[in-house]
Amino acid sequence: MAESGRCPYVEVLDESKRLPLLVRWRLRREQQRGRTGVLLFAEIREPVRSLTHKAGIVSLWEDGVELCFRSRDAKRPKFVELAPGVHRLEFKVTRISVKGSTSFLKTADLKQGEILVALCDPVQSNVFYRRSSGVDTWVIGVLAP
């Protein structure tokens, strides 16, 4: 559900989609350890030294508690360990202007060793190469070991 009336585009992660290299490495490492949780990656192409205030912060929340976030300062995949079971997760992209922020809820039933992979491509209006879409795009799926 979007807070501001703007809804992000959400699609299901399938086996044919090739994950970014850093995500594949981190996913393989966590699967080898047998961990259960969420792997969050935001494809932010904005430089760290950019002077814009339009950059979004991609975050993951559960029951009003922020589990992790990714911004232009922290671009690597982030893994958060969760206990097996049902989790009600909120995925957000927050911007300075409230009407530019989006969010949606997803309930995930994780079994032991399963990892929910969440990839986000937020709107980046001031990036000239590989222009982003007009809405925040999420690809989400649960991968078993």
Strand neighbour order, sheet with most strands: 1-9-8-2-5
Number of beta-strand segments: 9
N-end to C-end Cα span = 30 Å
Shape: globular
**Average pLDDT figure:** 84
Taking Cα atoms only, what radius of gyration do you get, to the nearest Å?
A: 15 Å
What does this structure look like?
The structure is a single chain. 8% of the residues lie in helices and 41% in strands. The protein is mostly beta strands.
Entry keywords:
mainly beta, 1 helix, 145 residues, disordered N terminus, globular
Short description:
This protein has 145 residues and is mainly beta.
Q: Which helices and strands, and how do they pair?
A:
Blueprint (H helix, E strand, L loop, with lengths): L8 E4 L8 H12 L4 E6 L14 E6 L2 E6 L7 E4 L3 E10 L7 E9 L4 E7 L15 E7 L2
Parallel strand pairs: 1-9, 2-8
Antiparallel strand pairs: 2-5, 3-4, 3-6, 6-7, 8-9
